[in-house]
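In this supplementary section we document a worked example of the pipeline. Step one takes a protein sequence of length 453 as its only input; no multiple sequence alignment statistics are reported here. Step two produces a three-dimensional model, which step three serialises into structure tokens for compact storage. The input and output of this example are shown verbatim.
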Amino acid sequence: MTVTVRFAPSPTGHIHIGNSRTALFNWLFARRSGGRFVLRFDDTDTERSREDFARSIEADLAWLGITPDRIERQSQRVALYDAAAHRLRDAGLLYPCYETADELERRRARARALGRPPVYDRAALKLGEAQRAALEAEGRRPHWRFLLPNHDGDPFAPHRTEVVWDDLCRGAQAVDLASLSDPVLVREDGSYLYTLPSVVDDIDMAISHVIRGEDHVANTAVQIAILRALGAATPAFAHHNLLTTADGEGLSKRKGALSIGSLREAGLEPMAVASLAVLTGTSHAVEPVADLDALAEMLDLGAVSRSAAKFDPADLIGLNARLVHALSYEAVSDRLSALGVGGGAAFWEAVRENCEKVADAVRWWTVVAGPVEPAIDAADRDYITAARALLPVEPWDEATWTAWTDAVKTETGRKGRALFLPLRKAVTGLDHGPDMKALLPLIGRRNTSDRLA
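The serialised model returned by step three reads:
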């Protein structure tokens, strides 16, 4: 069996780091298994789905390193859903209902008041052909419910019927179909809700593993029942915990919280985002991982916690910095060039440990190339003048800083912080930064002399 997984976002907004967690779990699972990854847009909601959102989702996944083996849009597969709905109707498993939303809510409220679960009572099954015709003559159009297999021939006498599966994240799971209402699969306007298209596509695309968020656990029992009604095999399921902020707030495409696009625009490394998205809420320590192959080796669905996967967005900066510190010049040369940063490998190796993001190199390139506003305290003016006169002749290398400061120390008697800090501030305009041994040769004698003047 070829492992085949899918990520099925609705193109109704930009995906966030929580969505990327699901996408990455699927991608890494397929990558480690030599399998296939399907990107399937759940775009049957024609009012809210937008092509620009679909394009942004593809771009965000590509930035993370996810390249689908197949891309599908459910809006182009309606004929398959129509055929499946026809089969279910013919089998007596999809039946028309005419209640309005208000009528259904009143029934649920009444059931709660009587201490009963607010489960649909299947009243529409009792309607005769003449009654249905009369309702339609009033202008009502039916929505269609799937008859759950929680009875022994009499749908009005449901009994406990457990659907069980061995969840790859959560272990043994059981859902009682008698505790659920028959799900609506088709709206009054003939359009499909999420459930039936998802099942039909999983069958048609031979999805072997459904890896998704724990908010879909209750849906799984219904989907397994529909799979069986359509004579299909059941894939393996894995329901991972969801990412929330440190205070437990959920993420939302609608709110745009921590969207992948915004993280990319902020200059974060894709592997910082991927590392946090995948490792948070697992038995692994959250650490920066160099590439997706290494992250795939670390993925263990059984090690995903059943508790909320809380994270602090500030952790991304720390992860990002650790990744940037390890990046070679070859890995960043094109980006540095696009940012207008020169200096080659020598410059990058001198400044990278002072960069949280690659773009931070711009600041240090300004320190090297100028212009720089020297920070010279009045009390240090004579000291700086003396130091300028002791500048070594070129060529300069990493030994120049030591040679210069040794000469200044001998001449002025200064040492420690009083020796080094005024020189750093005068040359760079800052009281902190990269090692001056590496920085000074890049600045050069002429620039250094001008800044000390």
